[in-house]
Automatic annotation (TrEMBL):
GO molecular function: N-acetylglucosaminylphosphatidylinositol deacetylase activity
UniProt similarity note: Belongs to the PIGL family.
Protein's UniProt keywords contain Transmembrane: yes
Species lineage: Eukaryota, Metazoa, Ecdysozoa, Arthropoda, Hexapoda
Keyword annotations: Membrane, Transmembrane, Transmembrane helix
Coiled-coil stretches noted in the UniProt entry, renumbered to this chain: none
Enzyme kind, highest EC tier: hydrolase
Organism expressing this protein natively: Anopheles darlingi
Pfam family name, one: PIG-L
EC number(s) per entry: 3.5.1.89
Top-level taxon of origin: Eukaryota
Gene Ontology cellular-component annotations: endoplasmic reticulum; membrane
Protein name: N-acetylglucosaminylphosphatidylinositol deacetylase
GO biological process, one term: GPI anchor biosynthetic process
SUPFAM superfamilies per the UniProt record, alphabetical: LmbE-like (SSF102588)
Length: 286
């Protein structure tokens, strides 16, 4: 049996076809998008897995390189320290160890380079007993070795801790062991020049003491602290400023030269013979 088709039937069938087409298109688009997303996702995973080991490998390489350089640097530092130590020992043996021809020629070279003038009478000005041996011991010994008569002017008894009498005797004992005559030691015990870091030592007072000694003893060399006083003690520094004032005012005779002991930093102070090359290079007395 044939059923005649009506116009409304044609419209329904075309609308249904259109809906089916839309549904299929949407399904295909969604599926394609899902597949693409899945593909992208599956492509990203191995790339992340590949990047992570790459970064780790780079870091490991950097770490190994740094260790290698550090190891080489430490080797170089150790080598430099070894060479420097050997240099110091050789210099010390050449310049200061007596008893061999090399030592004597080295000592002669050292003295020739030194600006310590040759003199017959020298005055050492210190602030406290023990300054003379702690800071100026080698200078006194060298002057005595040159047959120079050394006078010591100590401006206080060193009674800051109530040990004045003991330190007074130590001053005489130390000077005697270095070849300074007992009668060449002058110890000042004045109320305005007491051993005290907080006490202000007047420049004029110290200058008068020093000038009196220079003129009465007729010395050709005056030795004392520099402006930093070696240990930074204010009493040491005060002596330098008094000496400087005498120099600036022209009161020190032309026949008398003035030397000050150069203050070095704490590290160099306790390096002993390992400071020798630095001293030879940097000292202003060379
Ligand atoms: Zn002192």
């Amino acid at each position: 049996m044939n059923h005649p088709s009506t116009p409304s039937d044609g419209k329904d069938s075309s609308a249904a076809a259109s809906n089916l087409y839309d549904t299929l298109s949407q399904f295909m688009f969604t599926s394609f998008a899902s597949l693409r997303s899945l593909a992208l996702h599956t492509e990203d995973q191995p790339r992340q897995h590949q990047q992570q080991p790459g970064v780790l490998a780079l870091l490991e390489t950097l770490y190994r390189t740094a260790l290698l350089y550090l190891d080489e640097t430490l080797d170089h530092i150790a080598l430099v320290l070894l060479i420097y130590s050997l240099l110091c020992i050789v210099l010390y043996r050449l310049l200061f160890r007596a008893g061999s021809g090399n030592a004597l020629s080295g000592r002669w070279w050292l003295l020739r380079r030194s600006r310590i003038p040759s003199c017959q009478r020298a005055l050492l000005v210190t602030a406290h007993p023990d300054d003379e041996v702690m800071f100026f011991g080698p200078t006194i010994l060298e002057l005595r070795r040159r047959q120079c008569r050394v006078f010591v002017l100590c401006l206080s008894e060193g009674n800051h801790e109530g040990q004045g009498d003991v330190r007074r005797q130590e001053l005489w004992d130390a000077c005697e062991s270095m070849g300074v005559r007992p009668e060449d030691i002058t110890l000042v015990d004045a109320t305005h020049l007491q051993d005290d870091p907080a006490a202000e030592w007047k420049t004029v007072t110290i200058a008068n003491q020093i000038l009196r000694q220079i003129e009465s003893l007729d010395v050709q060399l005056l030795i004392t602290f520099d402006k930093d006083g070696v240990s930074g003690h204010p009493n040491h520094c005060a002596i330098y400023y008094a000496t400087a004032s005498l120099c600036l005012s022209g009161l020190i005779p032309n026949t008398c030269k003035v030397l000050t002991l150069e203050t070095v930093n704490l590290c160099r102070k306790y390096l002993s013979l390992f400071d020798l090359p630095v001293t030879l290079l940097l000292s202003t007395n060379w």
